[in-house]
Specification:
mainly alpha, 3 helices, 76% helix
Length: 49
C-alpha cells in the first residue's frame, strides 16, 4: 500500500494527472489476473492479452 501512496503523491506533486487512469487500469488488470488465476476462466482471460 505504501507504494500506491507514494505514486499518488508523485502524481499530485508533479501535476501529471494523466498518469492516474493508467495506474488505475494497471491495478485493475493485475487484480483481475490474480483473482482468476486458479479458475477455469484463466485461459480465456490470458487469451485477451
Amino acid at each position: 500500500m505504501e507504494i500506491l501512496i507514494q505514486v499518488a503523491k508523485f502524481i499530485i506533486r508533479s501535476k501529471k494527472y494523466w498518469l492516474g487512469p493508467i495506474f488505475v487500469l494497471l491495478i485493475a488488470f493485475g487484480g483481475l489476473l490474480i483473482l482468476v488465476q486458479g479458475s477455469s476462466l484463466a485461459p480465456f482471460i490470458y487469451a485477451l492479452f
